[in-house]
Specification:
The structure is a single chain. The protein is mainly alpha-helical. The protein has 22 helices and six strands. It has helices at 2-34, 48-54, 56-62, 82-85, 89-92, 111-117, 143-151, 153-156, 190-198, 208-217, 248-257, 279-283, 287-290, 295-299, 322-325, 334-371, 376-397, 402-405, 407-434, 449-455, 460-473, 475-487; strands at 224-226, 237-239, 263-264, 271-272, 302-305, 308-311. Strands 1-2 form a two-stranded antiparallel sheet. It has a two-stranded antiparallel sheet with strand order 3-4. Strands 5-6 form a two-stranded antiparallel ribbon. Helix 17 runs antiparallel to helix 19 (407-434). It is globular and about 105 Å long. The N and C termini lie far apart (66 Å).
Length: 497
């Protein structure tokens, strides 16, 4: 009887080993043929669907960036109105397009659609219309490297956004980060290369692991449009203000030295700087960066599917994929990890929320001082304080994930900005008193976005009506012309080589 049991167990073990061996061989065979190219990627191919024929797993995971269901404590991949949630921002950005609308960012696949939809680009009915330059397309599309190559860099930067609208129809994707011949990570936006040169560095010396962050740094950075380059005054030349360094003080010094302003605030008369999204800069000050963790390690973790290991191109918050993003290194319970993240974000949010209300009040108090006859000399230090405080506040809140990437640095910046704006408001109190105003300045209702937009002179219903017409009549024609142009481009299969 024992012999029969032993025989049976041996047979089962042999069977299981045979199945394991078969599976290993099957997976090896699958791996050998998994990435056999089907089409030839020629030149700068902006269409992700074409790349997807050669790299289906990566393409299919990228398409999941259309998913808008993720939501964490403060952020979402959906379309949440930030101005409705924090109305005082309308005052901070008065005179600037962000006072019209500002939403939580959606995934990369929505990049072109969201540009079309935002009130910030206006409603340009003809090529060359609208307030925004063509430079605004730079981080939104794989068509941009193609256009830069075909037109030349200065020419590309020298038009209106609407002028290139039929040429820019593909959202952020494969060609932004990969060499089509080798699939190596590559830099396709010259502004990053130029920023490294300004710091005395050579980006070509970057390691593969560094490149897994630098391809993100092509766009997830602070930047401005330089309109003072000799011989290129008509161009809105994309520039990263990194010459003095990556810290908030270094960039503040850089902007002050060149007397740069994105706009002049219509209430306080302050020359303002709008922080864009200094994600890479704050990441560089993080514990993760010091330990060699790249952006892709957390936002594009490796994934196994059908025995194949590949980079998940469903780029998004690591909190939506904790198992693959965080647990590669961390060993605590998921609940504990999320609690730690949210606690850091909560503390930074608490400080930034109080700060932005103080800045909004300072703008209005400064407006009152001008109304009562304040002199430029009286207001000089006040305006500098408002400029620096809002720049530092914006540096933190405009950064995607800054409160997590570098919570200590974010808190330090918010604290410094709070001190600056409090000093500016104290000076304003003295100026107002000297001008005969010895009571608090009347404030608008900071809890109502619509009232605040009216307060700063915006006619949002009119803007939305114009946008509706634009989306119905103009955008479909842009896309139609762009797709017709692309349809003429032959896609060569490997077999037809």
């Amino acid at each position: 009887m024992k012999n029969w049991i032993l025989f049976g167990l041996t047979a089962v073990i042999v069977f299981l080993l045979a199945m394991l061996a078969y599976t290993i061989m099957d997976r090896k065979t699958e791996a050998r043929f998994a990435y056999q190219p089907k089409v030839i990627l020629e030149g700068i191919e902006p269409r992700d669907s074409v790349w997807g024929l050669n790299y289906p797993r990566q393409y299919q995971s990228y398409m999941k960036t259309k998913d808008t269901t993720f939501q964490s404590m403060y952020n979402t991949s959906g379309f949440k109105d930030v101005l409705d949630d924090q109305p005082e921002l309308v005052i901070l950005w008065a005179g600037y397009a962000f006072s019209k609308d500002y939403n939580h960012p959606r995934g990369h696949a929505w990049a072109i659609t969201d540009v079309h939809n935002t009130l910030r680009i206006g409603s340009p009915m003809e090529p060359g219309d609208g307030p925004q330059p063509s430079t605004c397309w730079t981080c939104k599309s794989t068509d941009v490297p193609r256009l830069m190559s075909e037109m030349g860099l200065t020419e590309y930067y020298s038009h209106k956004l609407s002028h290139l609208a039929t040429e820019v129809i593909n959202p952020i994707g494969c060609a932004d980060c990969h060499n089509p011949k080798t699939m190596n990570l590559t830099i396709t936006r010259p502004a990053l290369v130029e920023a490294f040169e300004a710091m005395g560095k050579d980006i070509n010396q970057a390691s593969h692991q560094q490149m897994r962050s630098l391809v993100c740094a092509q766009c997830h950075v602070e930047y401005y449009f330089d309109k003072t380059r000799p011989g290129e005054e008509d161009a809105a030349y994309l520039t990263f203000p990194w010459k003095e360094g990556l810290s908030v003080e270094s960039m503040e010094k850089y902007f002050d030295n060149i007397d740069f302003a994105d706009w002049t605030h219509p209430i306080s008369k302050t020359k303002m700087i709008k922080a864009q999204h200094p994600d890479y800069e704050l990441y560089e000050m993080s514990v993760h960066a010091k330990r060699g963790v790249s952006c892709a390690d957390c936002h594009m973790p490796y994934k196994n599917e059908g025995g194949q290991k590949f980079t998940d191109h469903h780029i998004g918050s690591p909190l939506s994929n904790v198992e693959n993003s965080c647990f590669v290194c961390h060993r605590e319970k998921q609940e504990d990890l999320l609690t730690d993240v949210y606690e850091r974000q909560r503390k930074v949010k608490e400080g930034s929320s109080k700060l932005q209300k103080l800045i909004a009040m300072a703008h209005i108090e400064a407006g009152k001082a001008w109304e009562l006859g304040a002199s430029e000399e009286q207001m000089k230090s006040v305006l500098e304080g408002i400029r620096h405080a809002q720049w530092r506040w914006d540096f933190v809140v405009a950064s995607h994930g800054g409160a997590f990437h570098a919570p200590l640095e974010s808190s330090r910046i918010i604290t410094s900005a709070t001190g600056i704006i409090q000093e500016a408001r104290i000076n304003l109190t003295r100026i107002l008193a000297d001008l005969g105003h010895n009571k608090p300045v009347e404030m608008p209702d900071f809890n109502d976005k619509d009232k605040l937009q009216l307060y700063i002179g915006l006619d949002i219903p009119k803007e939305k009506a114009a946008k509706e017409t634009f989306l119905e009549q103009v955008v479909p024609q842009w896309l139609k012309e762009g797709k017709a142009r692309e349809a003429k481009k032959e896609v060569k299969t490997v077999s037809s080589r």
